Give the backbone structure.
Amino acid sequence: MLYKAPIPGLPDPRPRKPFRIAVAGFHIESVSFLPVASTWDDFEQVALRGDRIVEELRGTNTVMGGFIDVCEQDSVELVPLVHTALGAVGPATDEAVRRYADEMAVSVRALPDLDGVLLFLHGACWTASYPDPERFIIDTVRGVLGKDKPLIVALDYHGNIDADTLKNATAAFAYRKSPHTDTGDTGRRAALCMLRTLRGEISPAWAIAKPGVLVPSIFSATALRPLADIIEEGQRIEHDSQHYTDISLMAGFSYADAHNAGFSALCVTDSDPARAQRIADHLSERVWRERHALYRPFDVYTAESAVSRACAGLTRREAKGRPYVLVEHADRMNDSTYLLAELLKRRVARAAVPFLWDAAAAQRAFDAGVGAMVKLQLGGHSSEKAGPTLDVIARVLWAGPKSYRVSGCYMHGMPVDLGMTALLDVDGVSVSVVSAFAFAVDGDAFGVFGLRPEDFDIIVLRSKTHFRAFYQGLAEEILIVDTPDHGVADLRLLPYERLDTLRVFPLAPETSTHRATEDRQKSKPPHRSNRTA
């Protein structure tokens, strides 16, 4: 608890007891249309608790790493509770959300002398029964923390939120970049707000506005214009502000069928909710005006046309060291086979498909041994939309358990455990198969096998935006490939049920104005002060 200095305007001469702050995280980006949900057991495979959170994530470019960095620099007594993150997969089970929320609540209740709680949540979790899982977690923790202590949340740029989500949060901060190279900075922003609030320097007030706009994830990269221009305007407003101001423009996640899916403009100020709302409304209005350009800033290819373009480019000129990067963005589980099938059909050599998720194939390759020729049924296991399961004969180049720490800027230092892994040669195409879902967004997907991306002429990725941090300057050309998987570029093809399709672009009929103001009036955020005497 804070106390007032005995003489107004002068620092308190008494030594300050270190603040005691709990940290916890629950992170999943849910494609609600996928048929398989992540269970509590799935989350437990990557869960960290207590001191292991600090040991594993200190110094990493992650939200939790940012929390730890600020708290340790300020000699905060850090109380790590639980942290689990599965990344971009399918839904979560109700049980998983409930058990982690309950675990956080039980831990906080057992620590009555806490000064505050820092939470890391994605914002696009989806379950069968919870309309807003992140709101459920925030509300559960607030219920035991009490109304007067700060609860500050860090969110993913692709989170789907509204004012109700954050109703019981003191303040919230989201990534500003996609690729998410600023995850650590986001944790630091949240933690610094916590410390300034506890010291009585600021009293956070936040506001949110929703323009009613959806975009495919592949078009949410923050370097793409006009999105980059809108974000830059927010940064200028923040920089020119005379008082504390923090702005997060969130693209949302269109593949979670949530009532609050889509863009959000979030602003945090010091004791000025009206100003926060004006800023959020202004940026929201601009998103609405630019909705057509935001939705489709460039064309996409079919698997056939993308491979044809890459092969034609290789025929015209030597591209060694400058690979063509084909992004199979609609694949949400890293096991789509559309591009791999096309490469094999055309007998394309010097191509690579890194980190294909296929635990059974990895185990069979390991059992066969290095150098063996093994028959495999490869990929296409997650759903009927993931492409055909391919019957192949592959040479095993390497096989065994594999783990590493990320060397690239996205999630730098984060530990990755691929489980049983194998590097295969399939008719001249290099395919690495892994047992655990992992992003192949930088050179690590090749470096762990002693290879380099520059060794290949064509590389197939399954990323949405994160690959750009590494490949934008390396690739001869990046071709975005649309396939009939669960993450299609045409959002009008998705079977939304919870989302009111009559209220969001591009699903709704065109209107001249958007409904951000109307929606905001239905659910106004509170102005919560956390100064205590």
